[in-house]
Write a structure and sequence with these properties.
Dihydrodipicolinate Reductase, domain 2; binds 6-O-phosphono-beta-D-glucopyranose; 2 domains; 12 helices; globular; 438 residues; 6-stranded parallel beta sheet; 9-stranded mixed beta sheet; Rossmann fold; 15 strands
Length: 438
């Protein structure tokens, strides 16, 4: 039996309730060789049954026996993130209960506390350098370059990089993990994966939902920091990097860094959905963007001259995350490789074919639907993510230098002072004129 103690900071928060606790339950249900002791920690007085009741509403699958069993493994301890004494008593509590030296400490806490929590974890010995104690930091990792660097410094002072996971849950989505496979395991794409053949690339993560009671957080961050800095840039990097020497996180990070350093934002437009200012915990004269549309270039030999259109936004007409690689075409329809991330995941390749009677050339598509061929693509991304931490697979984690470079890109965009326009909910959001978007 593979036993772990999971210490969940922020156990009373939204992410814990909606994703982390349900995913821990699914993990146990699907992996009979795993066993957890889960200790939730947060500042609220909340009790265990309250937390579990709320999380239960978000389970994808459920059976009473396994849920009852799960409930028995879950404990809660009230803790002030800034109070070392609370950590010391948490450590005592954990060591009395735990049956394994393996600890996973998941910080689903506000990023402002990351440095302090890291230090307190070390000082209380909840996490010990080079022990089998892994620490996962939920995004956002900082709120700008300076804060991100400070957190990285706190980590470096107390722990080894091999103990650290900087989470981006998009890196665990079935099709996102397949981008490198499609590109580097097959031989047909790499020769044409460049500016000689590709006209432009679109990456879009659009959502129909609004900010869902996250006003306090969202109004400080906005779409650039909430989604663009991490999910969009990570997808972009996987599509554009050169083949890493090996499939380790270290070699992937080297290539991602090269791309981020050469990424130039040429133009863009920001948007805010009509009604955003009336959301709770949002300032009445907020200038926070809920939508981003950017045109970018990557100044490398492979990508010179190719336009990248990068979009994300809330309250749009469609719920979808995808990328389109649009090939050059003169006479006929362009070949397009669509990387569909969600809700349906797969690869769709648009080609041209001919009808034999009238000899007309028309576009056809070759589809790989993940679900149809391989079964459901969820386990939920948080279930995959927790499993990867258990398996010590760092490919789902963003390295310190890559995450700092991503913040540098945000700082440059902020300096551009892009226009902010109000858009109507349930529309596609504002776009720059003269884009080739299809
Ligand atoms: C999160 C953002 O990281 O990703 C949310 O904070 C966003 O604002 C979410 O809604 C989108 O993720 P998914 O997996 O639902 O597409």
């Amino acid at each position: 039996m593979n036993k772990y103690t999971i210490i969940l900071f922020g156990a009373t928060g939204n992410l814990a309730k909606r994703k982390l606790i349900p995913s821990l339950y699914s993990l146990l249900r699907h992996n009979k060789d795993l066993d957890f002791l889960i200790i939730g920690a947060a500042k609220d007085k909340n009790n265990t049954s309250d937390i579990l009741k709320k999380a239960k509403e978000h389970l994808i699958e459920y059976d009473e026996v396994s849920w009852k069993n799960f409930e028995k493994k879950f404990y809660y301890k009230q803790l002030d993130f800034e109070n070392l004494q609370d950590y010391i008593s948490l450590e005592k509590f954990v060591s009395k209960l735990e049956k394994s030296p393996k600890r996973i400490i998941y910080l689903s806490a506000p990023t402002d506390f990351f440095c302090g929590i890291t230090q307190n974890l070390a000082d209380s010995k909840i996490a010990i350098k080079n022990a089998d104690h892994r620490i996962a930091y939920e995004k956002p990792f900082g709120w700008d370059l300076k804060s991100c660097k400070e957190i990285n410094k706190c980590i470096k002072k107390n722990f080894s990089e091999s103990q650290i996971f900087r989470i981006d849950h998009y890196l665990t989505k079935a099709i996102v993990t397949n981008i490198s496979i499609i590109r580097f395991v097959n031989t047909i794409f790499e020769p044409t994966w460049n500016n000689k053949y590709i006209d432009h690339i679109e990456i879009s993560l659009s959502e129909t939902i609004g900010i869902e009671n996250r006003g306090k957080f969202y109004d400080k961050y906005g779409a650039l920091k909430d989604v663009f800095q991490n999910h969009i840039l990570q997808i972009l990097s996987l599509i554009t990097i050169d083949k890493p020497k090996t499939d380790t996180q270290k070699d992937f990070a080297k290539e991602k860094l090269k791309i981020f350093k050469k990424l130039v934002i040429k133009d863009g437009i920001l948007g805010q959905y009509d009604g955003y200012k009336n959301e709770s915990d949002v300032s009445k004269n907020s200038k926070t963007e809920t939508y981003v549309f950017l045109k970018a270039h990557i100044n490398t030999k492979r990508w010179n001259g190719v336009n990248f259109y990068l979009t994300t936004g809330k309250k749009l007409s469609q719920q979808k995350a995808l990328a389109k690689i649009v090939y050059k075409a003169d006479k006929y329809h362009p070949n397009v490789l669509t990387i569909a991330i969600s809700p349906d995941s797969g690869f769709i390749l648009q080609l041209n074919a001919q009808k034999s009677d009238d000899k007309k050339i028309f576009p056809i598509s070759m589809d790989f639907c993940y679900r149809c061929l391989l079964g459901p693509d969820s386990p939920h991304s948080y279930e995959v993510l927790l499993k990867e931490i258990i398996d010590n697979n760092h490919n789902i984690s963003v390295s310190s230098d890559v995450i700092e470079q991503a913040w540098k890109i945000i700082e440059k965009i902020k300096k551009m002072k892009l226009p902010l326009v109000i858009y109507k909910p349930n529309t596609q959001g504002p776009r720059l004129k003269e884009t080739e978007i299809i």
